[in-house]
Design brief:
Elements (H helix, E strand, L loop, with lengths): L8 E4 L5 H12 L3 E6 L3 H13 L4 E5 L8 H14 L5 E6 L14 H22 L3 E10 L12 H21 L5 E7 L10 H4 L1 H9 L9 H12 L10 E4 L6
Helix pairs in contact: 1-8, 4-5
Length: 255
């Protein structure tokens, strides 16, 4: 294999909870080991490592503020150490998943809030991917997580959705510029998913949940199990010819 051993290795940002956790576990079920990041909840990260071990694979959790570019050089060194412990010098897949929510009307959104979203959802993705380029195998895959909100509009999501729109443009440019290395780059855009993201709004607000279900062709909100296996499949050789695409995984929301 590209990194010198049979087991593929993924790096997943924000892998201790929600969609990221589900991606890590879905990859483990396909025989892929992971290096994943967590922001502050080490206990949750440790549980994910144990869950992956129970599936017969390895996972290594590294702390990272995905919006703090100044920490990326040290993080890359930690990744190199983690790869060594996995008996590899390169990794195969990068899933840029880490993120935070903001539900605020355009007229009420502050500069500080926009800066915070920009740092984690765009600037962080841009420069973390750049920093990791020397370590990703030729023929590897990158998935950038966007949102259905980049296609349809809900009041209160203008800043968040704008960052995701920028990520979708970046994805196409990365696919073009990294194509010479055989690296495929795609966007996965989930619809509304019932997780603790944004304080668990979709999961716990019954009215919100019902409204989203009514706007979705399949009649319910999404679940992490609707997204993680799809991303794991997209990273596999079965989908090697998919490149520079925005794939919405929303159950048919607002169609």
């Amino acid at each position: 294999m590209e990194n010198g051993q049979a087991t593929k290795i993924a790096i997943v940002t924000g892998g201790s909870r929600g969609l990221g956790r589900n991606v890590v576990l879905s990859l483990a079920r396909r025989g892929v080991s992971s290096i994943f990041t967590y922001h502050s909840n080490q206990e949750a990260a440790t549980k994910v490592v144990a869950e992956v071990a129970a599936l017969g694979q390895r996972a290594i959790a590294l702390q990272l503020d995905a919006g703090n570019v100044s920490k990326f050089p040290a993080f890359v060194q930690e990744v190199q150490g983690a790869l060594q412990s996995l008996q590899a010098d390169r990794f195969d897949y990068l899933v840029n998943n880490a993120g935070t929510a903001l539900y605020k009307l355009f007229a009420e959104t502050t500069e500080e809030e926009v800066d915070a979203l920009y740092n984690i959802h765009f600037k962080g993705v841009f420069f973390l991917t750049q920093a990791l380029l020397p370590l990703i195998s030729d023929g590897g895959r990158i998935v950038n997580v966007s949102s259905g909100l980049a296609r349809f509009s809900f009041p209160g999501s203008s800043a968040y959705a704008s960052m995701k729109g920028a990520i979708e443009v970046l994805t196409r440019y990365l696919a073009k510029e990294l194509g010479s290395r055989g690296i495929a780059v795609n966007t996965v855009a989930p619809g509304a998913i019932a997780t603790d993201f944004g304080g668990g709004r979709v999961r716990d607000d019954a009215n919100m949940n019902q409204t989203i279900a009514s706007l979705t062709a399949l009649g319910r909100v999404g679940l992490p199990d609707d997204i993680g296996p799809m991303i794991a499949s997209l990273l596999s050789e079965d989908n090697r010819w998919i490149n520079a695409q925005r794939i919405e995984v929303s159950g048919g929301m607002n169609i």
